[in-house]
Amino acid sequence: MSWGFLRDLLSGANKYSTGIGRIWVAVVFLFRLLLYILAAEDIWGDEHDEFECNIQQPGCENVCFDHFFPISHTRLWALQLIVVSTPSLLVVFHVAYRENREKHHGQKLYLRPGKIDGSLLCTYLISLILKAGLEVVFLLLFYRLHNGFAVPRLVKCDIRPCPDTVDCYIAKATEKMIFLCFLVATSCLCIVLNLSELSYLICKHSKKRYLKRYTQKHE
Amino acid sequence: MDWGALHTVLGGVNKHSTSIGKIWLTVLFIFRIMILVVAAEKVWGDEQDDFVCNTLQPGCKNVCYDHFFPISHIRLWALQLIFVSTPALLVAMHVAYRRHEKKRQFRKGDQKCEYKDIEEIRKQRFHIEGSLWWTYTSSIFFRLVFEAVFMYAFYFMYDGFRMPRLMKCNAWPCPNTVDCFVSRPTEKTVFTIFMIAVSSICILLNVAELCYLLTKFFLRRSKKAANKKQHPNHENKEETKQNEMNELISDSCQNTVIGFSS
To answer: Domain Connexin N-terminal spans what residues (chain A) (predicted)?
Structure first.
């Protein structure tokens, strides 16, 4: 019971997505989920053990680590992946509701329950807006909590019980920064994909409605 | 901890749940079990190793850790999730019993039995009415009680939901009052608040589901009583249609999430 569950969830939602939506799912799987599973444990696994301060005062390292890393990068990354995938459930629920309605009435009410039109289009657009919004929120959180996306090699700490300003060294700083840059880049790519899909759907359906109205007028 | 087994059991019950029940199950799996497995267990992974006390006295650190953390947050959450999921087993057992009875009727060749074969009985979805209503409502009630009890236990054991950076300890064999520092207190506070917030959402969902079931029950009773008064001999066709519409609205989202279907 782990990331496989999220993978099944997204595969279910993928059936009702547009082409751009499927690219989004592929980006999330290959460039984010897989990368997270690959990198998170190996690079961030020993972040606390290898965080070293130039002092023997007991408790100083703990307190300084807690000050500079209120939430670990990996936890925020994992939360981002889970939260950003959840809006797809709205579409899955809506399609299931349509299929159930057809079953109860015993007749075909929709051309295809999974076709993105009518109220399902609204649900789909809302899920896209939520996905993009949540990505931005998490990027902002990353930026605010860790003072930017850079991971310094050395941080200076003077919180009690550290007796004075103390030098603390972060393990694998460059490697962490590289993977963080990758995380930010893929998040931005996902935001662009979501916004493109949003524009594409709005344009497509506006055009359809305009043509319908035009042909009705001329009839 | 094999959460997959729990997933299998609850997935089977999901088929017979109301829409609110299905949302509750989704919240449980995505925002509680998954977060616990993927994130929270790693945050608390080094809790004893990195619990540091400002003393060289052997045994002092162990005793202080045990004093401040009688049971780890992770274990308490895992227990809470197990207890909260267990009432669904009552519903699963009731459904299994009904299926068993129907299969027995079918094998006896009962004229009243409306099924064509055993497979149909196995796949059938039971509506929440009659004795199944009582079982289902009791299971929601127990879920509520367990959630509330565990939230209170959390608050009582850890004096609130905040994890302090520094704890002062003077339990024997510590020679004096000693400063002890907890590892990752801010991250732990964030996850504690997150889990408490999601527990509260689950409590609200359970209360909403309970209210919905009670409303449905009383509406049905009052309609039946009104019908008996007006037309004592025959069933109202309008009422049947209305009931079907109500069931359609209320029992939507049949096959909600891949992996939840039995």
So the answer is: 42-75
